[in-house]
Design a protein that fits this description.
The structure holds two protein chains of two kinds. By secondary structure, chain A is of the alpha/beta class. Chain A has eleven helices and nine strands. In chain A, the strands form three sheets. A five-stranded parallel sheet of chain A has the order 6-5-7-8-9, sandwiched between helices. Chain A has a two-stranded antiparallel sheet with strand order 1-2. A two-stranded antiparallel ribbon of chain A has the order 3-4. In chain A, a hairpin with a 2-residue loop joins strand 1 and strand 2. Chain B has two domains: 181 residues, no CATH class; 285 residues, no CATH class. Chain B contains 18 helices and no strands. In chain B, helix 9 packs parallel to helix 18 and helix 10 crosses helix 17. The two termini of chain B are 16 Å apart. The chains are: A alpha/beta, B mainly alpha. Chains A and B meet through helix 1 and helix 5 of A and helix 18 of B.
């Protein structure tokens, strides 16, 4: 075979290989998850962005995640149950736990077990990347629709490293995203599952370096961000109080607990890869200061506080830095159930 | 560094890229360094016994070569052969069998009412020790017999033994096959590279999709205290496919990687489950070990040259040692005995059965062949139950269960085993009917069609494979 001809044949074979791989990924998704053969099928399909920020896409599904008619994870609202609303971000939504093991679902089972009835339905209003300020804008509508008696607040704090401007009104982008290679997503996921920690950490360091080359790096988050969190939290608590909803506040727990050991450095870098503007050393300081805001609000308003940050940590409870293992989600659910039913937080 | 690890995914392209850019002599030196790195990635301390025994083997072979060159008598070579054999088997015995024999002596002592406190060396078994000691032994024995000229270069000899694709789980290469390939310049051709990619894709599919998905099903049955007969039967089938796909998958990847560099390894498996009898099975299963056992144990013991009784004894000794080669446990010895018994029974009955059964009708003969394949497959599966059992008690449990085949009809398990084994069975039938090792080696299969098939195989291996597991034969 002439060399030029061979090169063309090899390139054609490579092209066929990639096309068949993509086709395999789509057939596989369709077969195992009932996903559409065409169109986007990834985590971004579960949410949409409207003028207030991120929102759940009603009845969307991806992999183990299924949204209900209101755009919340889980089953549809039942009128014969007393609703408990869980407000938060990806930790509440549930990222790594198998279906039914995210903390709101475990909380529902636990309080129903203690009540010896199917009295309660816990509505999971957590969404990946959802900040308190974003939720606040739709909070009134959500509360009136769900009519909860209790709201459990487990806000994600890292969003306050670089929060979006207050009262920002974005153009709505409700249309579905364009074409995406599903095989690329699967390859990336397989690599991050199998690549040794050292290689992943090195790759993250390079990525952080590239993203922060021309930016100011924060040693710790500015006090203005703490005040912003306090304002967002107060606004939500005021709204809940106005709607006669009892608020249960939960401090944000991490794998590290009160301080990180040298062995935690790789995990801190993994966390920072999502928020490169803040030094690794600033993350636990941020957690501590924002958790103090939660504690302060709970004390001032006489609310039930579940101080998860003080008792929930360690590799057994967290898959990575903030997302729970089934055990960690279970421990949090038990603590919240204690706080809810006994009115005495741990 | 397992073939199915991320590290190997990085290691292989880097090695190939550098290898292709070097001249022959430097290629050999680089491959030696790469092989040392590959082996040291498990534990660098394992390099010490490997380098010590290969050095002894090289020196003994050189001395024997010197004696042959000067026309010295054969007995003069013997001390060097004894030294090489003692070094290799001593190393194997120390690392692999010392604790087993010490434990067996203690058990025997206790059987007769004596008391002996537990003792043993509790050393970690160096990876692939059974494979590389047999490879090195074949070299010195061949030089002793005058069938092979000793290597003039220590580094070339070292590369032949340490070459990373075959180092830890074979195929057990003979020095007379590999050494000339090391010393001669290699020119990987287009067809060789295509064949190498074929073997690699097929090997990964067998290992990661079939074997790794079957493993938890087999483990589940073996972990049950009282398995049903149907489950035990399915466990036998499932483990038969698991171990075949695991080991032949490794071999295919090894052969494929070697082909990418212009090396040619011997075939290690040739449709073994389509064998009609035990003799045929052992000429198709782990061929590099069975031919090694034949040439360096069975034939020196006298083979079939000293009468029938002696032949049966030789077969039994060979198979018992082949069983023990697999692992230091009585279940492996029993597995060897079982296959020895099948071979002896076959040799004893075969002439009479042939006379009585073999018809002149070709179609009837084909039907008989199919029945023999089915019968012998089931006998092989029972052998695998012996092999897989962790203890004699567990084997007894499984054997008793087989007498109640209708208990615990686990149809879900049956469908999963059938689903996973189906692609292998279909492809092997294509191989058998098409009489070709490369099941895509038909004229109408263009490069693009091949690429599409490999895409499907690798997709299933990577994204639908079971949780990554070590290769079963690594423990041997």
């Amino acid at each position: 075979m002439p060399p030029n001809h061979l090169t063309i044949r090899l390139l054609a074979a490579l092209g066929v290989f990639l096309v068949v791989w993509e086709a395999c990924a789509r057939v596989d998704d369709s077969w195992t998850d009932g996903a559409p053969l065409f169109g986007v099928y990834d985590l971004s399909g579960l949410t949409t962005v409207d003028e207030f920020g991120i929102a759940g896409r009603p009845n969307a599904r991806f992999s183990k995640w299924k949204m209900n008619g209101l755009g919340f994870r889980g089953e549809d609202l039942r009128s014969d149950r007393e609703s408990i609303l869980c407000i938060g971000a990806s930790e509440t939504f549930g990222m790594y736990e198998p279906e039914g093991m995210e903390f709101p679902k475990q909380l529902e089972r636990e309080i129903n077990r203690r009540a010896r009835s199917e009295r309660y339905q816990v509505v999971n209003a957590g969404l990946p990347g959802q900040s308190l300020s974003s939720f606040n804008r739709r909070a009134a509508a959500v509360v009136r629709r769900v009519r909860p008696t209790v709201a459990v607040l487990y806000p994600s704090l890292a969003i306050y490293i670089d929060p979006p401007p207050e009262n920002l009104v974005r153009p709505a982008t409700t249309q579905t995203p364009g074409f995406r290679l599903r095989i690329a997503q699967k390859v990336s996921s397989a690599l991050s599952d199998r690549a040794p920690e050292a290689i992943q950490t090195a790759a993250r360091r390079i990525a952080i370096g590239a993203q922060t080359r021309h930016r100011v790096i924060l040693q710790r988050i500015p006090e203005s961000n703490v005040l912003r969190f306090r304002r967002d939290l107060s606004r939500l608590l005021d709204l809940l109080a106005g709607e006669q909803v009892r608020a249960v506040m939960v401090t944000h727990a991490t794998r590290f607990g009160a301080w990180a050991t040298p062995g935690d450095q790789a995990m801190l870098i993994a966390w920072r890869a999502l928020y490169p503007a803040l030094e690794e050393s600033g993350f636990l300081d941020m957690e501590n200061r924002l958790n103090n805001v939660i504690r302060g609000e709970a004390a001032n308003r006489g609310l039930t506080l579940v101080d998860a940050a003080t008792f929930l940590h360690g590799a057994g409870n967290f898959v990575e830095f903030v997302h729970f293992t089934p055990r960690g989600a279970g421990a949090l659910a038990h603590a919240i159930a204690d706080g809810l039913l006994d009115r005495s937080a741990p | 560094m397992l073939f199915n690890s991320f590290q190997f995914l990085v290691f292989l392209p880097v090695v190939l890229a550098i290898y292709y850019s070097l001249p022959h002599k430097s290629q050999n030196r680089f491959l030696l360094l790469a092989s040392l790195f590959f082996y040291a990635s498990w534990d660098w301390r394992f390099l010490a016994p490997l380098l010590i025994t290969t050095s002894i083997d090289y020196w003994c072979a050189r001395c024997m070569g010197g004696i042959i060159a000067t026309g010295g008598p054969a007995p003069a070579r013997k001390p060097y052969l004894v030294l090489s054999v003692a070094a290799n088997l001593g190393l194997l015995g120390f690392f692999k069998y010392f604790d087993f024999f010490a434990g067996s002596v203690r058990d025997l002592f206790q059987l007769f009412g004596g008391h002996m406190s537990p003792w043993g060396l509790k050393v970690i078994l160096p990876v692939g020790i059974s494979f590389y000691t047999f490879q090195a032994l074949s070299y010195t024995v061949d030089v002793y017999r005058g069938q092979l000229h000793p290597s003039n270069s220590y580094l070339d000899f070292l590369l032949a033994v340490l070459y990373f694709p075959h180092l830890v789980a074979g195929p057990i290469q003979r020095a007379n096959n590999l050494l000339p390939q090391v010393t001669q310049p290699r020119h990987p051709a287009y067809d060789g590279i295509i064949a190498g990619i074929h073997l690699i894709a097929w090997g990964y599919f067998k290992k990661m999709y079939i074997a790794d998905n079957l493993a938890p099903l087999v483990d589940r049955v073996f972990s049950e205290p009282h398995p049903g007969g149907f489950q035990a039967l399915l466990a036998g089938y499932a483990f038969a496919f698991q171990i075949y796909c695991d080991f032949s998958g490794y071999t295919d990847i090894a052969r494929g990687v070697a082909k990418l560099m212009g090396f040619e390894f011997m075939i290690n498996f040739h449709l073994p489950y389509l064998s009609r009898n035990p003799s045929e099975f052992w000429s198709r299963w782990h061929i590099s070990l069975s031919t090694w056992m034949r040439d360096y144990l069975y034939v020196p013991l006298g083979g079939n040259r000293r009468g029938r009784v002696r032949m049966y004894a030789n077969l039994m000794i060979t198979m018992l040692l082949a069983g023990l080669w697999h692992g230091a446990a009585w279940t492996f010895v029993l597995w060897g005995f079982y296959h020895g018994f099948l071979l002896v029974a076959y040799r004893a009955l075969e002439p009479a059965v042939s006379r009585a059964w073999i018809s002149r009708s070709r179609s009837l003969n084909k039907v008989l062949d199919v029945l023999c394949v089915i019968l012998f497959f089931h006998l092989t599966c029972y052998g695998w139950l012996i092999f897989r059992a962790k203890s004699i008690a567990q084997l007894t449990n499984m054997t008793i269960a087989l007498f109640h085949p209708l208990r615990n009809m686990d149809l879900e398990l049956a469908s999963r085993v059938a689903w996973l084994a189906a692609p292998l069975v279909l492809i092997q039938i294509v191989q058998r009917l098409g009489r070709r090792a490369d099941f895509l080696g038909f004229r109408w299969v263009t490069l693009e069609v091949r690429a599409a098939c490999y895409a499907v195989l690798l997709y299933l291996a990577i994204f639908r494979g079971g949780s990554p597991k070590s290769f079963i034969y690594f423990q041997f």
